Amino acid sequence: MKQKLILLSLAVSLLLMFIKFTAYFLTNSTAILTDALESIINVVASSFAFYSMYLSSLPRDFEHPYGHGKIEFFSAGFEGLLIITAGLVIIWQAMIGFLYPKPLEKLDVGLYLVAFSTLVNGAVGFALQKYGKKYDSLILIADGKHLFSDAISSLLLIVGIGIIIFTGEIWLDSLISLLFALLLLKEGYHLLRRSIAGLMDELNPHSIQQIQEILIKNRQPNWIDVHNLRVQHYGANWHIDCHLTLPYYLDLRQTHDEVENFRAFIVAHTGKEVEIFIHADPCLPPENCAACGYQACPVRELAYVKSPEWTVESLVKDAKHFRKM
Fold first, then answer.
1. pLDDT (tens digit, 9 = 90+) per residue, 219-254?
2. Most buried of the four, 53, 59, 200, 324, by CB within 10 Å?
3. Contacts of 188 (CB under 8 A, 6+ apart)
4. Is there a single domain that holds both residue 101 and residue 145?
5. Same domain, 176 and 233
6. Is the pLDDT of residue 50 over 80?
7. What's the mean pLDDT when you consider all of the chain?
8. Pick from 141, 164, 199: which residue ends a domain?
9. Nearest to residue 278, comparing CAs of 221, 220, 230, 234?
10. pTM above 0.70, yes or no
11. How many Å apart are CA 191 and CA 142, to the nearest integer?
12. What's the domain range around 122?
């Protein structure tokens, strides 16, 4: 399904690129040229996204033990760089337009062509973002955001062309181009920033919060504490590390069962392909007793008071929370 959506994006980008360049050659509008140049970015980005989608779907192998999902961050970064490049080119073209203005022609025809491309881009961009979130695919989300933002900029372009037709002020054409270029630079920066964050395994608070909610809702008496929680994203797959404090008297089989139970809750409630490495810590009576809610504990030395509060901030720290109670 994901590959079909990327192919749809590529086909739409090719069609709209042809339409927008047709509109530019008919009108000589620099503002429409900016929209056409961005269509080239859409085609190149969708082509690279299709290859990235194929690569990310490959199974793990000897050389890639965590799979190929990180290619999605490369794809988003590549698209971000292309968008920034297009923004800089558009700024250059707008400056030339200010210095050497060209007469504009057939703006009404150009307006209709841009309006059609706006509707198509908006619909496809919305669909890609929707399914990108459903499949947890950064490639689809990035491509969808690009197309949707392209639709919004085209909508502003339609308004600008209308103003030019109404006022007859040709210099507004270059001004509109500059405004679009700034929007592109902003969009490209955000995509590039997200790409770098993913490649550098930057903390994703949303992922930690999702796990936090799962743990709180499904907390088991033997799970005395959880800390040093880390989540790495490999495309739609997650790799999770954490420390789980369990009663010290559990034997190896019982500890294994608790760890598997912990993993099962995460997998069942995230709906993702999850690989979990859990380091089991033994509890340390009597200092842990007040934080241990396991009422059937045979070696309890102090009465139970309160379990540690699991917040996003506390879960990621490499420190046992019960020591502060």
1. 888 888 899 998 887 766 788 889 999 999 899 999
2. 53
3. 80, 81, 82, 83, 84, 86, 87
4. yes
5. no
6. no
7. 80
8. 199
9. 230
10. no
11. 7
12. 2-199
Which of 238, 232, 220 is closest to 293 using CA atoms? 220
pLDDT in tens, 104-145: 777 788 888 888 888 888 888 888 888 877 776 767 777 787
Q: Which residue has the tokens 């409630």?
A: 269
For residue 100, what is the domain's CATH number? Answer: 1.20.1510.10
Pair of tokens at residue 7: 């192919």
Residues 35 and 173 in one domain: yes
The total of structural domains in the chain comes to: 2
Distance CA 307, CA 236 (A): 33
58/172 same-domain check: yes
Pairing of strands 274-282, 225-234: unpaired
Strand partners for 277: 241
Tens-place pLDDT, residues 146-184: 777 778 777 777 777 787 777 777 777 778 778 877 877
